[in-house]
Design brief:
globular, mainly alpha, 2 strands, binds flavin mononucleotide, 176 residues, Nitroreductase domain-containing protein, NADH Oxidase, 6 helices
């Protein structure tokens, strides 16, 4: 064992969160998520690595029913466009898939990536601009693993167009 290694118990916790993480789109329970718990998982997200320490993400917490409904409408429009891309047989199958839990979930988190944050020149991003998006993905993964450890279900649902989601909430457009 080297001095940087975690104890066996702590290692087990890390691997357990990784292997038992799942995409949860249903079977949410009514118990409200305490703010302190939400803050813990968001803190984990904010500790993700990011290109040039750019931290381009934002997490908007949505609890309001009417905002969730609008986001759901945006999902439905995009989902219909997706369905139309399949041939008839596969389209019917696609329509049976449950691809979101926007209205059932007690909390929606709208995750954005502000690609202009910290200006046009960012260390590590100069030749690969998509690194800001990858950084945001790292933050989401941190959040997802922390949520699993805390017994909170989480699902990613990017199946709506970015601008539509932003318009459905109070998200400043510049964050996209
Ligand atoms: C970048 C990304 C986008 C995803 N988009 C959707 C989505 O739009 N709808 C959905 O139901 N699941 C979505 N998923 C969840 C995947 O379908 C799910 O992770 C995969 O089936 C494996 O299942 P698991 O996460 O439970 O292991 C997404 C996952 C990732 C990483």
């Amino acid at each position: 064992m080297n001095k940087h290694e975690f104890s066996e118990k702590h290692k087990e916790g890390v691997y357990r969160a990784i292997f038992q993480r799942r995409d949860i789109r249903a079977q949410f329970i009514d118990t409200p998520v305490p703010d302190v718990l939400l803050e813990k998982v968001l803190r984990a997200a904010h500790h993700a690595p990011s290109v040039g320490f750019m931290q381009p993400w934002n997490f908007l917490v949505i609890r309001d029913r009417s905002t969730k409904d609008k986001v759901h409408q945006a999902f439905k429009r995009a989902n219909e466009q997706s369905a139309a891309m399949f041939d008839e047989q596969r389209r019917e199958k696609y329509r049976t898939f449950k691809l979101e839990g926007i209205r059932e979930a007690p909390i929606n988190l709208l995750v954005t990536c502000d690609r202009s944050r910290t200006g046009p020149v960012v260390i590590g991003r100069t030749v690969q601009p998509e690194m800001d998006v990858y950084s945001t993905v790292c933050a989401v993964q941190n959040l997802w693993l922390a949520a699993r450890a805390e017994g909170l279900g989480w699902a990613g649902s990017p199946s709506s167009r970015n601008g539509n989601c932003a318009r459905s909430s109070t998200c400043p457009m510049k964050w996209w």
